[in-house]
């Protein structure tokens, strides 16, 4: 009995020892595997800036932001030190440029300000004769042009200047009759009736008065200009016969002119009668001609796609003539508060308008804005900025941000891709049926709507060593299950905009 108990105890001790040994071996193997995985997944991800104590994702040259480096040093592109991109920034809040480099690039800043300005727009206009003040010279009798003083249309005339001398043979008979009645001693009633008959035949009162004074009949009358201006029409010649109501000439004044402003079709709904107009002539920009829109002419010109607005401007010194081209500023009488930036600060790409904003931390970031009308050298910003912000007023095209403004650099990279220091990348073979793909393993550092940042293993096909860099996503909703901290296997291709992800999955294929 005692022997059986001793044998049972010995078996229990041996079993316990076996379990402990198996646990030790399994634990050692698991620890070794975990250590290898940790080393493979985080070759260079835990980088801490000793100056700030912040975690660094990678280093880059702000002027070539798409190229990332896994250690600090001097930029191979510019004569400057590489700058760190921290994990709490992710490179998504613009770029930071050294103050000395900003001075070399000639970067100048301006403040977004709010100002009371007159709502309006710039346009061009032409001067024309004021047709509402034109006078005509007409014949009231049948006669003949005895002498024509005016020689041709568009001749300048002064008020009272002779236009034409008219011979009227029908005036002779009533005047001789009146003289005969007067010599015959007829009563005043008969003479008054004779004078009324002469007035009915359009004999001027001056001719009748001269008939009483001199006793001689007159058959010639001189037609004169009713005002100072220009003969815009001259419809007769010497010796021509004229009839009652016929227009011999038309005189248009020059003391007041029409200014017809060509309003672009896009601004047709903004213009209205009563708006003020300040116009200048290119030949004398110091002199201003002002007025208010009197009427808007109906219809849009099919050739110029403009709406015409008309107003009167003074020309007492006769400096202006019809047909002059003038620059006009059309504005409302009431001022409105508007947010303004210098016009040179706005970059128009054709699809959008961009302003580069200086953040409080000194980083530069592009911001899409909605612009309104121009106000002199400034442009109204309807949306995208707030009062007091600092914007770049010069040197915008020398700044390339990781967040936006991909212009020249991506095109150059597509032509001659730049590899990390000491490595060279081979572009995909031209004419290939499908783009060449590359794959590697790495740790996810950051996920944004546009890209994913990895600390990845070497890519021998491209001559890359281990580094941290960003790869573009095919769409903002792609790879929704990928989270920072995961160890993943990813596949990517090279394109004109950089490197594009095609597949991302956790190591081992687990989702």
Question: How would you describe this protein?
Answer:
- The chain is α+β, with helices and mostly antiparallel strands.
- The strands form 5 sheets. The chain has a 6-stranded antiparallel β-barrel with strand order 5-14-17-16-15-18.
- It has 6 helices and 28 strands.
- The N terminus is likely disordered.
- It has 5 domains: 41 residues; 140 residues, OB fold (Dihydrolipoamide Acetyltransferase, E2P) (Beta Barrel), CATH 2.40.50.320; 74 residues, conserved putative lor/sdh protein from methanococcus maripaludis s2 fold, CATH 2.40.420; 123 residues, Beta Barrel (OB fold (Dihydrolipoamide Acetyltransferase, E2P)), CATH 2.40.50.100; 71 residues, Efflux pump adaptor protein, beta barrel domain (Elongation Factor Tu (Ef-tu), domain 3), CATH 2.40.30.170.
- The two termini are 59 Å apart.
- Helix 3 runs antiparallel to helix 4.
